[in-house]
């Protein structure tokens, strides 16, 4: 442990000291220059004698991450103010595994070479990633500046204080995408006016993972799962898959949930040039240069509707489904839109009703998801569930 000021905030550094001791020492100095004490938590992998198999390495990486997580837990009881990690592909993975379960809002920073796409790994955490730009393989002017900036970021995070007190209100989680945003905005405005706070989750795979964790962690009092498009990724792939826990958490915790098949008329894909020959034959909409939406097939929506029904059937609390037969998205709500397909919507609804437990109410609306009338229907269903919950408790 370093630093002379015993009252200064304490920050842990995660580093593979067998390969990055010099970088860890420099970061220690940079943090000290910002008024922070430090303790280094080694994350080196103790390789067995001889060549190890890939499975052995992964086991050792997980073992290192578990040890670091336990060490951080003990340090937090002593007032640890934050954690900062440095690493390449292996080191970044270990740092993420050690940090991702730590409390939301508690400072977590990783300086990484970003040797792989870590979006799915940090989707449900507020870990801050800083690209190292240069490899973390010996000090140089570029890396020194990056580490100095990281130290300044950590100093800012550990010295923040809330100057405002906010009234406690019930929190409603809503899932959203650009194609359902009009509905999300309309519903959120009315919930805010009714005395609720709304936390919106961007349903791109990452948002779905965070949504499920927030439910499991008890951070949401009720949910309107308006954009369930991520379910397609479980069977048909996606740029980022939402994880197998999607639509399970609310069922397990028993909080009220209203579910809408928002965005279920398309599959999420990457850049246009990455589409398969078959996908190129489907009607499509380029959401951005990086993301392409292709219209789902009837068979695909039937499969995903069955998955939705099976997960909702496990609900231990009040649940209701509202289906906008006029369109599941902006592009599916007008006849000239790329996702317009009344037969697809019928196929989805038929599969859902066939597989859904009879006690779960399904409201079939002729309106499109973007219409004010449908938004009002979702809100009426939501408040009815809340009233049902209150009645059951009284």
What is this structure's SSE topology?
Elements (H helix, E strand, L loop, with lengths): L9 E6 L1 H17 L3 E6 L11 H24 L2 E8 L1 H11 L8 E5 L6 H4 L5 E4 L9 H18 L12 E6 L4 H13 L3 E6 L3 H11 L5 E4 L5 H6 L12 H5 L3 E3 L6 E4 L7 H4 L3 E3 L5 E4 L2 H15 L6 E6 L17 H14 L6 E4 L6 H22 L1
Parallel strand pairs: 1-2, 1-3, 3-4, 4-5, 6-7, 6-8, 8-9, 9-13, 13-14
Antiparallel strand pairs: 10-12, 11-12
Task: List descriptors.
394 residues, 42% helix, Rossmann fold, alpha/beta, 13 helices, six-stranded parallel beta sheet, globular, five-stranded parallel beta sheet
Would you summarize the structure shown here?
With 394 residues, the chain is an alpha/beta fold. The chain has helices spanning 17-33, 54-77, 89-99, 119-122, 141-158, 181-193, 206-216, 231-236, 249-253, 277-280, 298-312, 342-355, 372-393; strands at residues 10-15, 37-42, 80-87, 108-112, 128-131, 171-176, 197-202, 222-225, 257-259, 266-269, 284-286, 292-295, 319-324, 362-365.
Structure description:
A six-stranded parallel β-sheet has the order 7-6-8-9-13-14, sandwiched between helices. The protein has helices spanning 17-33, 54-77, 89-99, 119-122, 141-158, 181-193, 206-216, 231-236, 249-253, 277-280, 298-312, 342-355, 372-393; strands at 10-15, 37-42, 80-87, 108-112, 128-131, 171-176, 197-202, 222-225, 257-259, 266-269, 284-286, 292-295, 319-324, 362-365. The longest helix is centred in the N-terminal third of the chain and has 24 residues, at 54-77. It is globular, with a radius of gyration of 24 Å. It has two domains: 10-158, Uncharacterised protein family UPF0261, NN domain (Rossmann fold); 171-384, Uncharacterised protein family UPF0261, NC domain (Rossmann fold, 3-Layer(aba) Sandwich). Helix 1 (17-33) packs across helix 5 (141-158). The protein is an alpha/beta fold and 394 residues long.
